[in-house]
């Protein structure tokens, strides 16, 4: 018999395929887990709606759950319950260590003036003297910034 | 073809299709800048915006598909060009930068107003999805705002705004431009026998 704790543990090992240092649990996209005999029901909410990583996460979750001898049922929730504030503190630290600046809290706002200001910290040297290079980046969830101190371009997670 | 189903769609499904078609077709048009934008940063920006818009379209088609007993893919690709409900603004192929930016600015304004209305809708599912979409659209609006500021004194940009503004509210379906895009967009899918799984 599979327990909910085992399911959470298994899901904590499912990486984001684009940023493998962080798991679906770190991302906060698993909203709820329910176990009903051999069936595991997971409520899953997308980060960015056009993110191609979502399908990969889904099939990897199914594989992990199959290893526990159960079958995964995913319910995709398309409501407004996920924001980047749902990324766990541990997840943020993992991002920073991997060279990605974690998203700033939503309360700090997302206006052009704020994005062009100096509030964003370089994940390499910690300086706040960084400039916005492009609102968009290699994936929908990231912007490109440049650190004027250590001269390092870096990827900044968008706050949504 | 899902056409017979669409003849008796609910008001809710019609609204969902209208927005989804806008986002899908605009996503296609924006993606036409991939690889050929005037500079690399804009290549990245328009490709990313296109990806977001098509993601929004998928989520909206999924809600509509549930109401209509069909699938998101069938709604996106198996209708005839006359059945699309998108704005005439997004149908145009615009290989000129100033017209692309004018469309971007006009679309983001109209879309922001629409999302604001939907976010307060009594239909909780629709309101929730609109709020989620709006979180991403903030960045499209910032990008449009940045370009509007940069081009504001450029006569070609002002002329493009005047030219395209009347199209925002026009929804005819089946224009020559949309039909040409549809041919391209659905050609792979139409080349396979019905029932093919991908």
Account of the 3D structure:
The complex is a heterodimer of chains A (160) and B (198). The longest helix of chain A is centred in the middle third of the chain and has 15 residues, at 53-67. In chain A, 26% of the residues lie in helices and 28% in strands. Chain A folds into 2 domains: 4-76, Fe-S cluster assembly (FSCA) (GMP Synthetase, Chain A, domain 3, 2-Layer Sandwich); 99-157, no CATH class. Chain A has helices spanning 4-11, 24-27, 53-67, 89-97, 112-116; strands spanning 15-16, 19-23, 30-36, 39-44, 71-76, 100-101, 130-134, 142-147, 153-157. Chain A has 160 residues and is an alpha/beta fold. Chain A starts with a helix and ends with a strand. The relative contact order of chain B is 0.14. The longest helix of chain B is centred in the N-terminal third of the chain and has 29 residues, at 40-68. Chain B contains 9 helices and no strands. Chain B has helices at residues 3-6, 11-31, 40-68, 72-77, 88-91, 97-119, 124-151, 155-164, 176-190. Chain B starts with a helix and ends in an 8-residue tail after the last helix. Chains A and B meet through loops of A and helix 3 and helix 7 of B.
Give the SSE map.
The complex is a heterodimer of chains A (160) and B (198).
Chain A: H1 4-11, E1 15-16, E2 19-23, H2 24-27, E3 30-36, E4 39-44, H3 53-67, E5 71-76, H4 89-97, E6 100-101, H5 112-116, E7 130-134, E8 142-147, E9 153-157
Parallel strand pairs in A: 4-5, 6-9
Antiparallel strand pairs in A: 1-2, 3-4, 7-8, 8-9
Chain B: H1 3-6, H2 11-31, H3 40-68, H4 72-77, H5 88-91, H6 97-119, H7 124-151, H8 155-164, H9 176-190
Helix pairs in contact in B: 2-3, 3-7, 6-7, 6-8
């Amino acid at each position: 018999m599979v327990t909910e704790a085992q399911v959470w543990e298994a899901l904590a090992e499912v990486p984001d395929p684009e940023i493998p240092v962080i798991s679906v649990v770190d991302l906060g996209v698993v909203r709820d887990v329910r176990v009903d005999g051999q069936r595991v029901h997971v409520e899953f909410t997308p980060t960015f709606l056009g993110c191609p990583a979502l399908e990969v996460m889904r099939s990897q979750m199914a594989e992990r759950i199959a290893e526990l001898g159960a079958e995964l049922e995913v319910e995709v929730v398309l409501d407004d319950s996920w924001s980047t504030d749902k990324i766990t503190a541990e997840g943020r630290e993992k991002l920073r260590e991997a060279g990605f600046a974690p998203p700033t809290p939503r309360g700090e706002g997302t206006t052009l003036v704020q994005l062009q200001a100096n509030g964003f910290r370089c994940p390499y040297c910690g300086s706040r003297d960084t400039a916005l290079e492009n609102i968009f980046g290699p994936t929908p969830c990231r912007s490109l910034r440049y650190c004027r101190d250590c001269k390092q371009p870096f990827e900044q997670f968008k706050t949504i | 073809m899902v056409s017979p189903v669409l003849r008796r769609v609910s008001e809710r499904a019609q609204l969902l299709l209208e927005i989804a078609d806008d986002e899908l077709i605009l996503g296609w048009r924006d993606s036409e800048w991939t690889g050929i934008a005037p500079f690399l940063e804009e290549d990245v920006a328009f490709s990313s915006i296109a990806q977001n818009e098509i993601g929004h379209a998928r989520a909206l088609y999924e809600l509509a598909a549930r109401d209509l007993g069909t699938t998101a893919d069938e709604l996106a690709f198996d209708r005839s060009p006359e059945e699309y409900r998108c704005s005439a603004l997004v149908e145009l192929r615009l290989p000129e930068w100033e017209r692309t930016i004018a469309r971007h600015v006009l679309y983001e304004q109209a879309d922001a107003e629409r999302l604001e209305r939907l976010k307060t809708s009594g239909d909780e599912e629709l309101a929730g999805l609109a709020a989620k979409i709006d979180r991403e659209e903030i960045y499209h609006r910032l990008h449009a705002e940045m370009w509007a500021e940069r081009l504001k004194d450029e006569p070609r940009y002002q002329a493009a705004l005047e030219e395209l503004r009347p199209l925002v509210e026009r929804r005819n379906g089946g224009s020559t431009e949309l039909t040409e895009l549809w041919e391209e967009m659905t050609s792979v899918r139409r080349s396979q026998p019905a029932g093919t799984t991908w």
